[in-house]
Fold these 4 entries.
Entry 1:
Amino acid sequence: MNILFVMKHRGNAGSTHAVANYMRLAPHFGHEIAIFGTPIWYIPELRFSMDIEDFDRVVYLFETDLYELLPMHQAIMLGHFERDKRLIVDTDGMYHELVELGGYDFNHESEADRRKWIAYMDALGDTVVHTLMGRSRFPKAQALPFFGYDPELEIDPVAAPGKTWDILHLGHNWWRWQEVEQELLPAFHAIRERVGRIGFIGLWWDQPPEEGPDAGPCDAFLADPYTFKRLRIETPPAVNYNDVIKTMSTARINILTQRPLLRHLKHLTLKYFEVFNADTIPLLMLDDDHAVEVYGPAAKELTLPGRAPEKIIDVLENEDRYREIVADVRAHIRIAHSYEERARELFATLENLGAPQT
Amino acid sequence: MKLVLAGAVDPWTRSVATVHRFAKWGKALGHEVAVYGPANPEMPQLPTTLDTSDADLVLFLVQVPQDIPDMPGLALMMDRLPRNRRVVVDLWGRFNETVRVDHDFNHLEKFDGHPDWEWKQAMTALGGSIVQPTLTPRRADVGSFLFHGFDPDAVVGSYASAKEAAEAWLDPKRSVHRPYGVVYVGSNWQRWTQVRAFLEGYRKAADSIGQVCLAGWDWSERPGWAVEMGIAGVDTDIELLADLRVEVRMGVRFDRVVPLLGQGRFAPVIHRPVFKELGLVTNRTFETFEADTVPVLMLPRDFVKTIYGAAALRLVPGNDIAAHLEGLLADPVGTWEAVLDTRAHLARHHSIKKRFDDLERLAGVIGRVKAAS
């Protein structure tokens, strides 16, 4: 199959990295992958194409924005790809019931907004997948983990960059603040004198988006740069997808947070796996049972909720023991979440589009 | 027949007047005509629909990229309606090899970002057949469907005779209602070269015939976007306009065009260079004859004869615009005979009713609709 991804072009987004992995693996399965559009100069390894007729499957990948093609391009797409050649990947739980969590995070601002998304996706294709394990809570959607683990990207500790950070958090400030404010900042406050440099790398930790309200709900970008400064938390700029793992490897600990909505829906993200590629000790802001489901039993030792200060200090004081735990997790996810397996799942889904669901 | 017209209908521009004529005449002829989209409070008389599922025919009226409907409607139409019930009306000749005449193109990637192959692929995807409003499509896979047409019921000042029309035309008592010698309504997109030639030719007769009114977008200055993008063909000459005392107005809403044209003794009909090259008709081709004025056909004579009939040749100027208009004024009855004969020709051959007949034949829907009823 020649597979065309239609998605927002963002060099610093997890989905881009996942598609890059599929692009790399596809030839081993006899397939080719490209992203619809023209090349991006700073990520020359990604293949782009505007030649729609060269492809026989299309994957529309939606994040939180309803990424709309120009109508003329959409017409060409719809004319070329029959409905049973179109797959919709919903990474952010938009194809769902209205979900609102504690007055903070939500998938849609209103029922009208939700209906618009559902109508759009229903019109676009018959198969919508959510990026999760098991089954989707939304009956019309299927589950496809989509994001996976690529052992080839593991950083060898011998070749790893020097550790310039004690703690890093790598990810944009998009619906992260509640978790950071309620769990992480009190923990950092309690142990700050015992910990070296702390960094939050990504967009919008030190200032809101330049686009203003057009970027999305204000609550999604809540931040407190003053408290960050008081706790000596640094906020370097975002890095491109191909620098994520290397950057994570500059820290002894990396903390994985997940947007509350996706944590609630148990959606996987690429960061789930990248953090285990890095030469670091990942600490997970995930519920124990979900961590175990994804990473295996060893991951129970890596979860943070409810015990963040003690856990962070314990890791810094017992790094070797935690490196063994991380090795156990890696052993689990190399099998359970390999990109070879993910690629097999994706290609099987694409091959079987239009077939009756069992 | 349930006919859905899909395109960006804007009360200030492009084919909005023809769309209204289709809605009006469709209803009178027993058809159900609606424009795809939500109701538009600016055009309350225009029926709209978001449900195309039972349409006998969808006409995609394509002029600019925005005419292609957005999602999800686009997918609903393309996935659920068979191709033979989807027809693309390529109003600007996009479905051709790239044609350039002077500064005018049928594809201007610099302006809208779409090269010729995208237009062709998109139109091929949209419809099972593609038609253009010309009698002479260049491609074998394109049909002829003029789309735009003449509405005899909309003619202002239905005169019983040329003599009556001529008297009304020159009646000094009515000059308060006809303050201009010439009214041209149309935007400055690839028309300046012809408008300039008309104005310069008109100079000699301006004092005796009257002031020129130029109504449309971008006549008073070359727009900033054209300067930034380096797009020619949207030029103007403020000094020339001032020298000739030309009154420049902004664009005119579609339902005020015919009354405004009637405020002048003459109304030029000017087609873009590419349209002349491809023989494309426009709304104004026909609408100008609905106004209480004498059209001046700035068009090739063979095109005029074919579309308007032989009588209209009298309304085609030679090289001397001023002499032509003075000649028409000197023989008002003969002039109005030409206008009335042309109106009769247009009513016979280019009415909207005729367009519905063409459409049914073209789409082959007559049999299917009858069989279903």
Entry 2:
Amino acid sequence: MVPFDWQAHDTHFVVAHLHYVLVGGFVFPMMAAAYYWLPHITGRQPVQHLSKPAFWLVFIGFNVTFFIMHLTGLRGMPRRVFEYPQEAGWEALNFISSVGGFVMTIGFALVALDLIMLIRHGRPFRRDPWEAGTLEWATPTPPPSYNFGSLPHFDTRGDALEPRKLGPELAAGHGYLGFMRNGWMETLSVDMVSGRLDHVVILPRPTFLPLWTAVATAVFFASLLAKLYWLTPVAFVAVVILFFLWTPSTGLKQEIGPLEIGRGERALHHQEVAQPPSWWAVVFALAANATLYTSLVFGAFFLWLSAPNWPPPGLDFTFVLPSLVATVGLTVAAIAGRMANGQPGRTVTGLVAALVAHLASVGAVAVLLMSIPTPTGHAASAAAFAVAVYVGFHAAIGAVLAIYGLWRWNTGFIGPSRVLDLRIGRLWHDYTAVAGLIGLAFPFVLQSLTGIGGR
Amino acid sequence: MKVSPFLLLLTGFVIWSGAFLGLYGAQATGCHLGWHQVEIGPISALRLLLAVMLVATVSLIAGLHVIAARSLGEPQSENARLLIKIGGMLQAAALVATVITYGGVMWLTLC
């Protein structure tokens, strides 16, 4: 295999192979998908059939261009060269590839032209032009902003439906949620294994807040890139406030119990169930966060083992008092977060305790950060500093979530069976306690290790 | 022992990835600190440590597979039964993956 590897690597053979995989596996399916679903998106059918010559031009052009490149590659032509000696003997093959390239380009131009013709001048057509078996064709075409007038119920596989019959029934409101109430945008959440009804999800009304949040988030990162560091905390505060402004629209001011959802069935509002999408979102965000954190800690230990200049001279990470205060703070916050359960008395006490404990942790971590010797001097100090910042940042967000809980309590969004906000906070407090205790132990472990393992 | 069926879906390959971190970390640490030069009987201390870690990982995943297989014998809801069945298969797949990917610590050159 060695001679073949040698011949194939970094030659035109690789370019040819890559494009065969890419065009065959990705570009053709994408074009097929465009031709399949554009009639759904536009509600139109093509009048001309430029697509057929376009297909053949792309197909032939692509094969002529890239099949030949296998041969130039096997004859030793390297990648990424724009000139080669005359004696190399690659001209004829490259010339054929170039011809193929022009043919393919004309083909893609025809595809583009055909799609523009379809979108601008196609013939308006009813729903489900292909007599497909899947649900998306049951909406009117082009689909209205709400997609389905009501949601269907089926107990068979979803690929042998009759959208042409199903569509008018759903449009007439004969499915679930075929009505409006309280100006809510509602949809259903189902069990992920059985598909049985679980609860009603109330979506936020259309608003520009996500856009402003995205702008503030972009400013946060851009300020770091542009070294406008004074702007970073401003943008961060703006992000937090904008996120919170978004929440009142999805809250519930009193317990409402199971809601009518049509077809004679009832289901709970998402604020009154155990695992709505927002709860799962925080679980998955924390899982991703934990991966990042593990990489950070692992990276420091990797440097201990493999980098030169370890142990660092005069390493001193003995800041026992602030670490102890932060340890107690994070633990108390997690326990207090569990105390807040939506009952009067316990909720406010628990949230205030969590807030105070988190603030104490933030203060202790700030002291700890100032005691780390020369964070820019050595990777060990830099790693200890980064991990401490991570812990302090999580405690700070924990404090913000405690304040959020108190605000939601005071505005009447929390009750004994409306504890979603508190449960989301609890996830964060628990994670912060576990990650924080590891992070607080980290500098001590690093210091004791550098003693035994330095080179 | 009663295990949540959903947990069974996750454990196999999470343990597998944890074992990757653990074995990789122990191998690098051991090489750095010279444990591969400490002889314990016919093998080095580092190989013994890695072998013990591998056996522990295999036993843990195999134990979860056995738990899944046993819970199938108990009365379960249809959903739970499906999840437990898939969970059991995932433990088996994780077990095979563990042996294939980490079995090398038994004979490959360590450092």
Entry 3:
Amino acid sequence: MSTAIDGLTTQESSEWLPFRYANTGDFLIRPLFPRLPELLTIPEIAGRYQALIQAASGYTDAELDALALHFASSPRGDAAARKAIEERILSEATAFDSPGRRASGDASPGA
Amino acid sequence: LSVDAAQLELLADFEPTPLTGANAGLVETFQSRESSYAEEVERYLKRQALLESEQGVSKTTLFVSRARGFVGAYATLSATSIPTVGQTSTVLREVLRTEKAFVGAVMIDWVGVSDEVRRTGLRLGERRVLPWLKAEVVAVNRHAAAPLIRLDVSVGNWRAYRTYVIRWNFKALPVMARDGRPRPAPNPDLPAPPPEFDNRTYVKMFLDIYAT
């Protein structure tokens, strides 16, 4: 997993090593590489990194296309809509808080 | 949420409780054996969940009946990310208007409802676990952006797949078919998984909290 990528030191490339997700086959990649924005402007490096990341993360083009379509139609840029959605979600969850739970405070179930 | 008062009372009886060494004995009250997939869910809870929680690899929350002291459901969560780079990076990154290489997400590693609770038709997963989970993700997003909830399910675990799409409102991404080509996710209205997919193939699914 420590194969150096052309133009980068082994240490730099190793910062992108994927961590396999134990139960799902998914991968988590540490987004710690500070030079990424700069490097992705260089086509040959960007291509290599994109291929590496995509292969490691296990997402296909079709999956990413579907995500892009989803994001294009989501209201995420609308602050008021987001706030309303958050409030609705929180109110649904609160609906299941029993009177007993509220009375006990339940500030820290694990404490 | 179209539940009557009696159901609401039953649902509220299940208290989200972090799994710790102090309450680990509760996992023995959880039984899920209606299929090989269900058996895996029970096995994980009893053999691995506490260890992973203590290691910080994942966190498991039990839904414990206050009245009867048994585990009716559980969910195991961790953080993951979805890349915005790849051959389609231009599209995805332009849509998101970001230079970030990833979108953060909360991963459902495991989720399960006990056989006993499932047979009651209470729909504890949909009505209690999912609203709790969404509220937890909203809380996370106050200070760390992770707007998606991710979930993988095997094509062969057809009943679960249908539940997540039809009732939980998860969106399924295209799936690689047996011929090596991606196809749109299986139609959940079908009575059984379509033959063009291998039952062992995972369908990647997500729920966008800002699009529900």
Entry 4:
Amino acid sequence: MKKIHILFTLLFGVAAILFFGLAYPHHLHYQEQYQLFLFDSNYVWDIVKHPGGVADLLGRFCTQFFLYAWVGAFIIGVLLSLVQLLMLRLADWGRLYGLSFVPSFLLWIFLLDENALLSSVWTVLFMELAAWFIMMKPGGWKRYVRIVIAIPLLYCIAWPAHIYRNPSVSPELFSAVVILGIALPLLVYVARKWLQPSNIVSMLGSFIVVAAIMGLMIKQNCNFKAEKIMAYDFMATHQLWNRVLDTVNEEKPNNQIGVTVQNLALAMHGMLVEHGSEYNQNGINGLLPDVQSDATSPMPTAEAFYQLGMINVAQRTVFEAQEAILDFQKSGRCYKRLAETNLINGNYEVARKYLVALQKTLFYSDWANETLPLLGDEKAIAKHPEYGRLRKMAYKEDFYFSDHVTPDMLESLLRANPKNRLAYEYLTAYYLLTGDVQSANNTYRYYQSTSEK
Amino acid sequence: MKKILYTLLTILFFSACTENVNDAMQEKQQPHIYPDYLGVTIPVNIAPLNFNMADAKALCVDAVVADRHGNSLHSQGEEAVDFDIDDWHELLGKNRGDSLNVTVSAKYADGWHTYRPFSIYVSADSIDYGICYRLIEPGYEVWSKMGIYERDLSSFDERTLIDNTQFEGCVNCHSFNRGNPADMSLHIRGKHGATLLRQNNGPMAAYNTKTDQTLGFCVYPYWHPSGKYIAYSTNTTNQLFHSAGHNRVEVFDSASDLQVYDVEKNELILSPLLKQDSIYETYPVFSADGRSLYFCGARALPEGSHKLDSIHYNLYRIDFDPATGKFGDKIETVVDAETQHKSISFPRPSYDGRFLCYTLSDYGQFSIWHHEADLYLLDLKTGESKPMTGANSKDTESFHNWSTNSRWMVLSSRRDDGLYTRPYFCHIDANGVVSKAFMLPQKNPKRFYLERFLSFNVPDFIIKPTDFDGGNASRLINDDYRKDFGVRK
């Protein structure tokens, strides 16, 4: 009976895991791709030397596991449960037991925002630990000593300096978590004589009330539209073209990233020209949209550039996307692609820089170790199924390009290698979408006549 | 448990690279080290030239630096030799104007190898206190974290002056009067755009340099030796990108003019000769005596043309009277690069008035993105130019400037990997003989340069710490107030 609260915590934790694992997995993938955790002393020191650095470091450390959504969901579930368990220790909650879940639920809601960082949860955990350390017995002057120790220590390890990706935004919800994390135990302490005795019914009752209210708030704050967009981005990153087609066949995408990935998947299957009209299109903006200066929207387009063999265009797009990450972090996904584009272009020393950095990661190191021996090995690159193919498909002649992809660029790509099926698909689709049937027919005839040779 | 811990620590301690170089195989060739410090000329006050073996197979590296008088310095390390900084300076101090002999040994799987020693020449000419530079990813249009930093050349200490975590925007064009940070300017671009100016160690102030009579914001500053004027250009800058090959981006002007700012009167001085529509004028610099203004100029392309490889900048000169702030009435061609189908950028006269160094590339003015760009030295007495062979490499050499004694040059080069710009230094004697350039020393150079994904942008000498208050500067930047530049009637 005394340990019945463990059951509620467990229930809460499992709910969080199921939510993030089932309903929000691509938000976790999204988080992972905008950071690059390095097992490197300089990297660690550069983070921990700042106020709140330890919480930031732990947040980043955990986020690297978000590459696998269920592992990420498990980490979030455990951390949110720990926040609740520590909250429980800070006061004798009695009949208001359910309120001990409020900070955890609010953090859950906070994490629904794709720019909210996991360091926020560690920050709250450290704050709770500090409060628990201060409140522990004995009191008197020893408590004052503990306050003197805890406050500067807390500043060093858990100052909330980096809990949100956009540094110019101070998230109010996180402030609410901190305020309630302090206010609720105080409230309970003040009202302690009215809150006892408690029993299983009152505990259950208060838990259900809090869970119901917070559940509604979670539902209201979920961004499933963003989740769908992130799902397309995830499938493009991992080149899951069949899955893309399954997804679009179930529900046609109605956002630019979805349409871009859909068209790339169709083109990868050689279906864009013949079947493109059966799917939602967004004019030529659904093919290779103009690159925006943010970290997210250019990435699927960059994948299309890369697969087409427009290596310099892909390189520029990925580079700019990484530079646009709001909190100045680097990205494992971007580093990997930049290593690839530099390798394909023969810029081996630049590729080496990216690969050596990726060697210091947990989940990209195997790939980096496999790729490093390719540097400078022209024969091995030529034989490589992806890099060899892309070298053949790439532009042979140099020309200038700007922010817009023009049909001339696709035309030039196709003429550089008439067997570039993807270039044919995109160029013909471009003409069809702009109503230029004559040019589409010419491209078809050109491709048929040259690709058969 | 304690025993296990002590045993592990003992194993760790003895497994570290601290051993005598015994039974080494004697190699006939000189070592292949990183950075390449073989035969370089260095200033007496430079930080220790720590180095690594260039290849990744070395298990340990050992170096003995010895002089002719029996003094020596020893270092050994797993990755790099790391000389004691005080001992290093003491040894260099004793050998001013003389050479040092460096014997390198490296341990490989088959044992120790000792290489033929090489020399380092310690010049009698000292170098300025430090350099100031911008650190930025060599990107295109979007920027991540960047800032302005200063580095003490006699140690490894780097200090942030200001970075874009303190404000929203980009910072560039740091400039000092002959390396003296008492006169300093700095540009901020973006939402909080401003030019920060400090004159004669006075308070920093934020200016709006855009006027209704000029093309835009003033850029590429160069201080007049008197500190009373700053030469600026105003440029309409564009970018285009290369579709294939090693070249990535072209930065070019579609219009540009020159003007000189009178610091005391807060006025821009304009001249019709320096704002011709048919000419792109850029990179203005004052001569050592302050009586000439050198600049680069190219024939403008027809509107809408992107024949960027036909833009060739020559080096020009116009008289300037510091007493009145008036320009001469004719422009003189100093170096005609156009006839060679080449292009000049970043003219920098030596402060003794003897030479002028410039970058020569195939076309355009943004030479950092040109792999063929090299440095040339113009003898201002004879008017002859020659390539600075000792300082140049197969890859890009671009921005550069002179130390205040005009005997050292700091130059940007991409020779290391073709993309990331690093500062190098070379000695130039009174006759214009250029020594082999050496890379900015680091405690563990290979690790440092491999792990730093930032270019050293516009490295320039400073004669003392800048004493720049980043907090105050960011307050000025984030404040809306800007003092407007006026224009002389």
